[in-house]
Amino acid sequence: MFTPSVAVALFFVPFALAQDNSLGVQAIEAHFTQSLLVPDLLSSFTPSSLLTVNFAGVGELQPGQALVKEQSAPYPTVKVTPGNSSVTLNGTYTLAMVDAEAPGSKLPEGQTRHWLVNGVKISGNDISNSSAVAVTDYAGPGPAAGSGVHRYVVVLYEQPANFSPPEALSKPGVPVQPFVFSDYVKNSNLGPLVAATYFTVQEGTATVSAVPTSSVISSTLKPAGSSTSKGASGTGSASAPGSSSSNGASTLTVPAAATLFGMLFALVM
Ligand SMILES: *[C@@H]1O[C@H](CO)[C@@H](O)[C@H](O)[C@H]1NC(C)=O
Ligand SMILES: *[C@@H]1O[C@H](CO)[C@@H](O)[C@H](O)[C@H]1NC(C)=O
Ligand SMILES: *[C@@H]1O[C@H](CO)[C@@H](O)[C@H](O)[C@H]1NC(C)=O
């Protein structure tokens, strides 16, 4: 069934995955649209990198994963992976978690701030908070009973040199409370957005009618590089490091590699 070139392609897929996470970036963009976080929370969403959140006892979360309150109570670990090899994460960042409520609903005061840390650095794939300011330290979800499936969004923004937070949010120790997240981002000069993910927590049975959201069918996502020749050559070269022209990689056509990459991606998702 598998031709030799398919076998070679499968062998090289792990190298391609290590180099290029553009399919992962497309998948998280689709999650944010289909969960209505775009436009409920963000007017647009074009991250350059991937964010993963890990709670002790739960493990690394999938985008949109449903948790119970207790699972998301401990301090999470956050990791960032560049979307491709030309993305550098050597700046200063702001990390936040907000409760974007159930799809289609919104507090009059905006979103509840559960976590806001300025001055974060990235070391390897890890978030380093050793020189950071925890304006609001992590406080796990506590949705009201019957208020539906709340979307907790963890987001990382670039924090430029001209970052200027409002006075009320410029010192540590500010409690969990609502704010208009998009106003905070805009007025503080944060951006661009680097990466984000979300999970959900529901308390009790919803008494509000939920807006239906469709699930993400990752197999419908276009493989990286399928639309432009520039992207296609990027995909081809991504599988090349560590291989010489005599190792059989040259028998791969780029479209075949891209299709396989897409198929495998659909499987692992
Ligand atoms: C890498 O990611 C950046 C940010 O998303 C994007 O602008 C750029 O086109 C990507 N480069 C490649 C080769 O895909
Ligand atoms: C980050 O790395 C890029 C590319 O190597 C470089 O141009 C930039 O000046 C660096 N930024 C900082 C804040 O070190
Ligand atoms: C840094 O992270 C640790 C948990 O790893 C946490 O206890 C601490 O409050 C954090 N500090 C800041 C400034 O966010």
UniProtKB/TrEMBL annotation:
Region (Disordered): 218-249
Signal peptide: 1-18
Xref: InterPro entries: PEBP (IPR008914), PEBP-like_sf (IPR036610), PEBP_euk (IPR035810)
Matches recorded under SUPFAM superfamilies: PEBP-like
Biased composition (Low complexity): 224-249
Record-linked Pfam families: PBP
Keyword Membrane recorded: no
TM stretches of this protein: none
Keywords: Signal
PANTHER family: PEBP-LIKE PROTEIN, PHOSPHATIDYLETHANOLAMINE-BINDING PROTEIN
Name of the protein described by the UniProt record: Phosphatidylethanolamine-binding protein
Species, as recorded: Crepidotus variabilis
